[in-house]
Amino acid sequence: MKTEIISKNTLLEHWLGHRNLTRQTIDRFPEEELFNFKVEGMRPFAAMVKELLGIAVPGLQEIVDNKSGELDENLNYSTKAQLLQAWDEATPQIIELFGKIPEERFTEEFNLFGQYKSPIIHSILYFIDNEIHHRGQGYVYLRLLGIEPPFFWERE
C-alpha cells in the first residue's frame, strides 16, 4: 500500500507561493542595485532571476515534450520592469505545463537540459530549491543595502 505525502496540486501551490515571494523580493530591489550590486564570488540578483526564468518554464516544457534541450539563462532583460513582466508571464505557463505532467511520470528518469539525469520529481524539486536558494541570496543583498526583505512566510 502506497501513502501519498503531498498531492501534485499541493506541490504546485507550494511552488507558486515561493514564486510570489521571489517576485516580492525582486520588487524590493532598487533598479540599479538589482542589476549591479553583488558581493565577491556572487552574481547580481538580476542574473540569478534570469537563471530561474531560464530553468522553470523551459525545464517543464522539456518534460512535457519529453525532449531534452539546452539550458539558456542569458536572457536579455535589462530593466526591473522587464524582469517582473517575464516573471509574471512565466507563472501561468508553469501552471499550464505542470498540469500536463501525469503523476505517473514523476518517477521517470529524464535528462533535463541534456545534462541532469534524474527522476522528474527531483527536477521539479530542484526548480523550487534553487529558487529558494537564490532568493536567500537576494535577502542578503537587500539587508546589505539596508532594505527589509519580505517576510519569508508571507507567500500570498
TrEMBL record:
Keywords: Metal-binding
Designated name of the protein: DinB family protein
Family: Belongs to the DinB family.
A Pfam family per the record: DinB
Source taxon at top rank: Bacteria
Organism name: Sphingobacterium thalpophilum
